[in-house]
Amino acid sequence: GEKDWEKYEIARKLKSCVDDIRNQYGQDLKSRQMVTRQRAVALYFIDKLALRAGNEKEEGESADTVGCCSLRVEHITLHEKLEGNECVVEFDFLGKDSIRYYNKVPVVKKVFKNLTLFLENKGPGDDLFDRLN
Known about the structure:
CATH superfamily: Topoisomerase I, Chain A, domain 3
CATH class: Alpha Beta
Number of strands: 3
Helix content: 25-40%
Shape: globular
Oligomer: single chain
């Protein structure tokens, strides 16, 4: 229970600065630095969709589960228009405990344009956020 208590304490502290974080990643969506843009889009997904951050796995782990920062090109599909919405991102991947995450989400235009840029010259198995660690 102590680990959970620590998480809730962090969340309580985050409450006082979350607006500043949102403003910053909003500005970072148009940064000249690609790593800053990728971080901004990842933060947007974590914030708006409650995606787990995710991290690299050690060799030999069985399931191909991912989080936000370990998404690959094959896990998203971009739709300029879909079901009456513009700038839609379709997610399809295995999340924690191998539970499938499937969602179609309209995003702000800056996020959509950045994702289009991130996908350029990449294959399905390539990392979406290739500059983040």
